[in-house]
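Narrative of activities, Objective 1.

The group set out to show that a structural description can be obtained from nothing but a protein's sequence at a throughput compatible with the screening campaign. Below is one input-output pair from the validation batch, recorded exactly as produced.
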Amino acid sequence: MHAITGITGKVGGAAARALLASGQKVRAVVRDGYKARPWAALGCEVAIAEMEDADALARAFADCTGIFVLPPPCFDPLPGYPEARASVAAVRQALKVARPARVVCLSTVGAQAAQPNLLSQRSLMEEALSPLPLPLALLRPAWFLDNLAWDVAPARERGVLPGFLQPLDRPMPMVSTLDVGRVAAELLQEDWQGRRVVELEGPARVTQHEIAATFARVLGRPVQAEAVPRQTWGALFREQGMRDPVPRIQMLDGFNEGWIAFEGDDASVRKGRVTLEDVVRQLVAG
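Output recorded for this entry:
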C-alpha cells in the first residue's frame, strides 16, 4: 500500500494513476472526502487528513510501505513561512510514528540554495525530513511546464508570451507534471537505503522563444515572447492579489541569475518523456 498526499493535484494524481497501472494499492490522503470519490471509484482506499494534523496523517500513513509527501503549495506565504513550517512539523511527526519502508518527498530544483526565495519552503521540508531514520528520496523537478497554463490566454488573444524567465534565449530545464508523478511512482516501487536526491527535467531544455514558437504552431497564429521588465513585477503581482511579492521575485531572480539550479551535474539528472509541444497542446485544448 502506498499513501499519496496531494492526490487531487496534477503531480499526486499522476503518481497515483501510475501506481494503479502497475497493480499497486493506493491510499488517497485528502482533506475533503468528496474530492476523493473519483479515486475511491478507481479502487483507492481513502484517508481524511489535513496536512497540519500530525495524528490524522499518522493514521493515514499507518501500514503503508511507501509514502508520497506532496507539501501543499503556498504561493503567497507569510514572513518566515509559517504555513510550510506547520505542515513540515506534522509530516515529520506522522512519519516518525508510521515508520514506512520508504518516503518520497516532492521538493524542487534549487532546494539546496542558501538565498531565501519562494522555494525555500521546500528547503524547510528537506531539512526536517532528512534526519529521519527512514529511506528518503527527495524528488527535485525543474520548473513545471504546466505553469504555461497562465500563458494560454495572452498567447491566444494578443499573440504575446510574457517572459519572466530571462534572458529569453536562455535554455531552461522544465518538466511536465506527468513525468514528475510517474517518477515519484517509480521511486516508491524501488528499494534503497538512506537519503537520495533525484533531480528531474524534461527531454530538452527550452527557451522562451521556443515556447512562443510552440504556442504559435499549436494556435495557428503568430506569438512573440516579450520580456516583462523586472521593475514592474512587484506592482503586477500585487495587482494579481499577492500580499507580499518579494519571495516570488526572489525565486525568479534565482532562476535568472543561475543560483536556483540543479545540484548535480547534467549526467545525473533524470530525463522525462513529455515534450513541450505535448504540454502546450493539452493546455490549449483544455
